[in-house]
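S2.1 Query sequence (Magnesium transporter)
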Amino acid sequence: MYRDGVLEAEGFPVEEVSARLAEDGVTAWVDLCGPSRPELELLAEELGLHELAVEDALQEHERPKLHRYDTHSFLTAYAVRLDRATGRLATAEVDAFLTPKALVTVRADDRFDIGLVTARWDSAPLLAGSGVGFLVHGLLDVLVDGHFEAVQALDDHVEHLEDMVFDERPHTTEVQRRSLAMRRSLVTLRRVVLPMREVVNTLMRRDLEVVDGPMAPYFQDLYDHVLRASEWTESLRDLVATIRDTQLNIQGNRLNLIMKKVTGWAAIIALPTAVTGFYGQNVPYPGYDRPWGFWTSTVVMVVLSGGLYATFKRRDWL
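Output structure tokens follow.
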């Protein structure tokens, strides 16, 4: 509980929330990790939360959104974490009820470290007087920073994929596997990041009365970060698709080069075969019973094969 921007109390029972909020200059934050339906319904009764918002908080896999009700707003957002070894993205849903004097966060489990949020609040005590707007900004700022870190890590993975594609030794299977993992992670990240533009933009509306004057520049900066993260995500999706197309083109070029070399060597080998086949016919020919005839055929084979090799080499066919 904050009173006039100063932290005053912590760890009090949920049953006391409504009584404390009745006091002047008070703002409260309530965090519920893995609450049961009765626990959440008790808090809903204390704060007058809408039953549909309570139902959404109890269900997982809701899309990021901000719904407005008569007495409060309901926010859904996601924290993300990227496994740098595999490139897989893990998400954790965070729901929040925004009332004029309280912020209630609901988490299904502890995959999202709420301590990062409290540390963010503690780092800016001068803004605590903005009440719920200050608390919401700290929460969203931590979430968006996580989005940025995930996008940056995915960007590093994509750069590594580019190096693998143009490596002298092809890593076809590995590139395909990593490309598929990147595409899946980027699709998931896109579903999380893109709706945040609408969420933050709606929060900044004056009629919601969440963002006051001192907090307006901070929410604008947060909105800019959301835009950058969403645009970066879109560009990475296009880049992964381009990498896959490039890999297929390189494979085709390498196959053509191999076929060109094989064809060149086949032509070189065909000449000695033709000469020896001709001299092996069952009719007399010049030098057929003399040593110089053998050496003549040998010289013809070497000269013709060498000439073809030099021609193909000059044309970069070998």
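Strands lie at 2-3, 6-7, 26-33, 65-68, 73-83, 88-98, 102-107. DSSP finds eight helices and seven strands in the chain.
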